[in-house]
Amino acid sequence: MGNTTSEDLEGSGFVTYDLSKKEKDILNKTSDGYGKMVAKLKEKQATQLKLLLLGAGESGKTTVLRQMTLIHGTGFDDNYKKKMKPKICYNVLEGAVAIIESFGNLNYTVEGEDLQKAVDLILETYSPLKNFSLELEPKLADAILLLAKSDGFEDTFRGKAHDLPDGWWIFAERLKKYPAWGGPDWIPDASDILYSRVRTTGINTQSFAVNGANFMLTDVGGQRNERRKWLRLFSGVAGVVYVASLSGYNQVLFEDRTANRLDEAVGLWDKTVNEKEFKDTAMVVFLNKFDLFQK
Fold this sequence. Notes:
Elements: E1 3-4, H1 6-9, H2 21-29, H3 33-45, E2 49-54, H4 61-72, H5 78-102, H6 113-125, H7 138-148, H8 151-159, H9 168-174, H10 190-195, E3 199-200, E4 203-210, E5 213-220, H11 224-227, E6 239-245, H12 261-273, E7 282-288, H13 290-294
C-alpha cells in the first residue's frame, strides 16, 4: 500500500516540485515541510483558482485528480505507466493477502492441497515493506487466480471484512488474461492506473483550464496522520471538493479497523465545512464509487 511521491508522478501530467534533501527530511518528519512546499505554489496561485480535494482516506481523491489529468491535462506518458506497473502488481498481491487474512474473521478454513500451496506462496511473496519492484511471476499469478475462485474469497469479498483495494476485483478479472495482462511485457493502460491504489503523502497538484478559467487542483493525504497538514493549504481557496466513498458504508479505515469509513467521512465533513477559513468558500460534495456501492 504505497505512497505517491513527486518522483512517482513524473510524466503523469501532475505538477511536481523538486525538493532539497533537507526539505524532504523536514516533510517526512513534521508538517513544517508543507510550509516550504506551499511557498513554491504561491506564484501559480496568483493566476489560478485554487481548488482543494479533501476527504478521508480511501475516498478516491487521487483518482479524481488522475481523471482531471486525463480529461484536461496531458494524460499519462509511457514512462509514468511503466512506473505504475509494479505498484499495480503490488495491489494485486496485497488484495490477495487481505482476503487470506480475513478468512479467520469468517471462520473459513483453507481446504485442498492446491489452495493451501497457493496461499503459502502468496504469503511468502508478500512484504509489508512495499515491494514495488514486484513482478507477477506465472506461479504467483496462478496462485492468485486460484484464490479468487475459492469459496472463501467470495464470502470474504461480499462480507467486506478486509482492507481490499477497491479495484482488486477488476484486476483479478483482468489477470485471467495473463501474461497479456500482468506479464513481463505488459504495460498498464489509463484504466489500470485509475483503478490502482497508492496512498497519498505530501501535496500533489494538477493545473488545467476550463472555458478560459485556470484552475489548480490540490490533493493531500486523507489518513488521520496526514490531516494535521491540511491547515497550511486553507488560505486563498476558491472552492473545496469534498470526496466521500459511498462504498465505505460497510468498510473500516486502514488506520483504525474499529472505525467505519462512511461514519468517518460524515464526521470529517462536519468538521471541514465548519472551518472558519472556509466561511466564504464554495463547497462541493462528491459522492464517489457509486459503481462499487451498487455491487
